[in-house]
Amino acid sequence: MPIHVTEGATVLLPAVQRDDFSAPFFDAAAQGILLVRRCENGHFLAPSSGSSHGNSLRCHECQSGRVDWHPASGMATLVSWIVLHPRDGGGETRRAGLVELEEGPWMYALLDVPSDLELRVGLALRVGFVPTDGGETIPSFGPA
Ligand SMILES: [Zn+2]
Questions:
Q1: How far apart are CA 128 and CA 138, in angstroms?
Q2: Distance 114 CA to ligand 1 centre (A)
Q3: 131 - beta bridge partners?
Q4: CA 25 / ligand 1 centre spacing (Å)
Q5: Ligand 1 centroid to residue 50 C-alpha, Å
Q6: CA 141–ligand 1 middle distance (angstroms)
Q7: Residue 98's pLDDT is what?
Q8: What is the pTM of this model?
């Protein structure tokens, strides 16, 4: 069941602010490649948990600090979603969701789906990429 949000919706999306930590992610996204972080023991970490602060630099499963970026398949399934309504009441609604990557991690992302497509949990998705106003490219998932 979608949650309709009219105010403050953008806070649910990951901030698009490049820093030294996230630079590889955005550089790859600009080339159409989704990167996820993987520890030396093969555990995948969610890309949206990326932060240069705190314990997210360590693997949540084995606590290894040896974590590198790794190309993801780009395939995912839909876990949940929200409908973003323009604050001024005009324009088009957009949808964003929580997706489970084929590798296991969950991430928030925009959904690029036809407005008449009925979303459902488990819907097969494939990553695409869209430019943002700030010049970065971010993942956007559409039907597989
Ligand atoms: Zn690990």
A1: 8
A2: 37
A3: 137
A4: 19
A5: 15
A6: 26
A7: 94
A8: 0.80
Q: State the total domains in the chain.
A: 1
Q: How far is the CA of 67 from the centre of ligand 1 (A)?
A: 8
Q: Domain of residue 128: give its range.
A: 3-9+17-143
Please report, for the domain that includes residue 78, its CATH number: 2.40.50.840
Per-residue model confidence (pLDDT) at position 18: 83
Written as six digits, the tokens of 35 are 């990167």
How close is the Cα of 40 to the center of ligand 1, in Å?
6
Q: Are strands 67-71 and 106-111 parallel, antiparallel or unpaired?
A: unpaired
- C-alpha dihedral sign at 114, 129, 99, 50: negative
Distance of CA 102 from the midpoint of ligand 1 (Å): 17
- Low-confidence stretches of the chain (pLDDT < 70) are 1-15, 47-56
Predicted pLDDT of residue 12: 41
- Using DSSP bridges, classify how beta strands 35-39 and 44-45 pair: parallel, antiparallel or unpaired: antiparallel
Q: Give the distance (Å) from ligand 1 centre to CA of residue 27.
A: 24
